[in-house]
Amino acid sequence: MVVSERLSKWGMRIYPPLLFQRIWVVKIDKGFRGATVTINKSIFNRNYNNSIFGGTIFSAADPFYPLLFHQIFVHKGYNVIAWSKSSEIQFLKPGLTKLQFKIRISDEDIAEAEHVLNTGGKYIKAHPIDIYNTSGEVCVTIMNEVYLRNINFVETL
């Protein structure tokens, strides 16, 4: 489904799995080239050690690369499916404060994905996410492997 950046931002803001964990989409960049997301610490997402629960952090990062890639290609006229195929997460410091991350998709990333979708039908690549605390320290790093499939791709021999 083709949606605007604004509708996508608000849809993700009120999406219950994100909303109830205090995950807030600050911005979806023009052309779906990026997103800025915060994770607000609250009683709903604190763990025993008074830091943000790791599952909340992972939930915040999981959907955004597939969402952005999907919208980029749908706006280009492609019929694609997108999801996170796998992720690797490393907790470096406890999330004792509000956390924030930014995702950016470059022209080179889009060109590479488009080439792969047009020649092989399936794009699979890991993309990094660094999540920062309010002091600017990296607390979590994630490698999110994105899977895109061009549904209309027909392989020719």
UniProtKB/TrEMBL annotation:
Family matches, as Gene3D superfamilies: Hotdog Thioesterase
Protein name, UniProt field: DUF4442 domain-containing protein
